[in-house]
Structure formats: C-alpha cells, structure tokens
Amino acid sequence: MKIKKLLFASAAGLMTVGAAQAADLPTAEPVEYVRVCDAFGTGFFYIPGTDTCLKIDGYARYEAHWVEDDPESDAFNNFSTRARGEVRFDARTMTDLGLLRSYVALRGTIGPEETGSYSDGFNVDKAWLSLANDSGTLTAGHHGSFFDFFGGNAMNTRIGGDDPTLSTNLLAYTFAVGNGVSASVSVEDKWFRRYGSVYFTTNTAGSITTVGTDAPDGQELPDFVANIRIDQGWGSAQIMGAVGEISNSAPVFPASSDTEIGWAAGAGLSLGIPGTGISFDMQAAYAEGLVAYVTTGNGTHIFDAVIEPGGALARDLELTEAWAIQAGLSVDINPTVSVGLDGAYARVDHKGIFDALPADFADYDTFIVAGTVHWTPVPGLTISGEVAYETIDHEFVGFPVTPTTATLTDTDVWGAMMRINRT
C-alpha cells in the first residue's frame, strides 16, 4: 500500500511539473495568411500586418539581331544577341492624405557592343513615389519626364529609332482640373538631357581648322517643364513645354563663358477606335538649345549649341535648332496577333559660324521606319519580329571632328530582330 501511495504521489508531482513547464512555453501566434487586394487590379496582395497592397511583376527576355555590315570596321557585329530581366515593385496605401504609392523597377542587361566584347549592366530604371487625392498628384523620384508623351512602339534595339522619351530625376505636381483635364509643373534634372557644345579655335577663309566638343558647365538651375493634358474615351492629348539654361565655356579659353536660355515645345495625340483594336499615337516637338527633348541624335554628332569664335571674353553660344515627329500605328488582328508600324523624322540645324560655311557643319536629317509583328500564343508569352530601316543624311560628309578624328558619314542601314518575352 505504501508503495502504491508513493507511486501515485510521484506521478502527480510529475504531472504538476509538466503542466507548469508547458505553461511557461511561448504560444504560437495565429497565422495571418496573405490576402488578395482587389482595390487596384489584378496581382496585388496585402503585405501581412499592414494596409499596404503590393504587386510584384517583371519580365525575362531574349533578343537576336542582324544589321547590315559596317564597311569601315572588320570588328563590327552584324549578328548579336541580348538578354534582359526586369523586376517591378508597386506598393499602394490609402491614407488620410490620399493614395500613397511607391514604384521601383530594377533592370539587368547583357549583350555585345557593336564592336568588341560582351558587356553587362544593372540599373534602376524607375524609382519614384507619389501622393494623389482629389486635388492632384505629387510625384518625386526617377520618373518619366512630364514633357514626354510618345516616343514609339517599335522594339528598336540595334536600329535605335528616335525615341527621345526618358526617365529623369524630378519633383512634379499635377493639378486635377476636372473632366479628364490636368495640368502639371515639374522641376527636372538637366543632366539627363544635355549633349554639350561644339567649339572651334580658328577659322581661315571660311573653313574651320580645329574642332572639338565641350561638356556642359556645372548645373546652376534645373529644367522647368509644364504640360496640359486631357484624357477621354477617345484617347488623350497633350501640349508641353520646357525651359533651361545652356552654359558652356570653351576649353581653350577657360575664362570665357556664356549662358543662354534654351527651350522646347511640343504636342502629342493618342487615338483609339473602340471595338477595332486600332490605335494611333504621335508626338511633334521643336527646340532651341534643349534638343534632347526632341531627338536622340541617332548616334551622330549633335550639340546643344555652337561656341562662336572670338576673343577670350567674347565666345558666345548659338543655340541649335531641332524639330522632330514620332508616330505609331498599332492594329490587333485577333486576340493573339498584333502588328505595328512606326516612323520618325528629325531635322537638326547647328547655328553660328557653321551657317556661313558652304556645308553647314553637322546639320542633318534622319528618317526611321519599323514594322513589327507580335504573337502571344499563351498569356504572358510574346514572340515578336521586327524589320527596320534608318537613314541619316548630313549636309556635309567627311568633315573631320578633332581631337577624336571622327568624320561625318551618312547612314543607310537595314536591320531585323526577334524577341521572346515572358511577362
């Protein structure tokens, strides 16, 4: 009997100790599963423990290109390939002040140069935040310029097209006027849109003997950009303008400098025919000095201004004039096939002493056209093909540009490419 009592007492003691130890163990928190956020469209989910909706997407891409031979270079790559990956993060939160949003796009690319070996690179394609309410939208970060409207639909990898739209560092506010009308003002970093100036040291009997290029002086003021835009069921339209300083000093005379105010103006239109799958987009712009808002230069010699000859304190800037138009037509043949036709034309006129020469140094016209076919056999996978043609016609061919020893040459080239893209 005593043994039984001892055993029962021991068991009771062990159960009491076990219960006490179990009470001391941490209890598991309830699992909060990821919930779908349907307030902003497909793909968003709530970040657990927050009211923020997040969407993560991106793409993986392969391209193969062929372009006509460069007769001046045995090292020229007629055939080339390129691979690219991009991941995008879009986070949105409704706050007492309105919709708070942040957007980041990270991109990596590997492919060959036109000559030489392969190169790779990683960059931040977009990084901006915005706060939007009924009054308007505040935008800050690395974002598309508020001057830009349309640059082209073509893929434009080796034959680069003429798409002047780009992202820049900016601080902007868009006023919501009402009925689809908005007005934006933007302060933008000019360093993303400057080509520098061309200078020369002597001119004898109407000919220039020494020519070089000069990077812009240090930035004193940003560019100021504004637009007025309307968005309706038929499409959208925009008028836009930009002003900014062009400031350079000639390297041969460090004490000499001049600052001029450059400007650009343009308009854009986007039309869609409901129920047809047909859309048309275009942008036209003109600039004096701010030529990078209008055209890319297409790899040729292009400058914001010309530094006039003169004494050490009298080397004035003459602003370059440029105008361009980009347009694109897109047609959905059926739910899986679409075709597109893009075209662009630009004219660049360098002013100053070059106007007095018979050949107008570095002035040129460029024309580009591209036809594209896209096939989407399954959602997210698109296989595309494109044929493109580019011509650049200089007013003067063969002019030496020292100290690089480059010469101005006309371009007349065909190319083709294919792309496989999984979004």
Can you offer a commentary on this structure?
With 423 residues, the protein is mainly β. It is built from one helix and 25 strands.
Largest sheet: 16 strands, antiparallel, barrel
Gyration radius from CA atoms, angstroms: 30 Å
Order of helices and strands: HEEEEEEEEEEEEEEEEEEEEEEEEE
Strands in their spatial order, largest beta sheet? 2-3-4-5-6-7-8-13-14-15-16-19-20-21-22-25
Oligomer: single chain
Spans where pLDDT lies below 50 across 5 or more residues: 398-406
Total helical elements: 1
Name the beta content range.
over 45%
- The 3D shape can be described as globular
Annotation, overall tally of beta strands: 25
The assigned structural class equals mainly beta
Helix content: under 10%
Overall mean pLDDT stands at: 83
Please report the distance between the alpha carbons of the first and last residues: 79 Å
What secondary-structure arrangement, pairings included, does this model have?
Layout: H1 2-24, E1 45-46, E2 53-67, E3 79-95, E4 98-112, E5 118-132, E6 136-144, E7 167-178, E8 181-188, E9 197-200, E10 203-204, E11 207-208, E12 211-214, E13 223-232, E14 235-249, E15 257-273, E16 278-288, E17 305-307, E18 317-319, E19 321-334, E20 337-349, E21 364-378, E22 381-394, E23 400-401, E24 406-407, E25 411-422
Parallel strand pairs: 9-17
Antiparallel strand pairs: 1-2, 2-3, 2-25, 3-4, 4-5, 5-6, 6-7, 7-8, 8-13, 9-12, 10-11, 13-14, 14-15, 15-16, 16-19, 17-18, 19-20, 20-21, 21-22, 22-25, 23-24
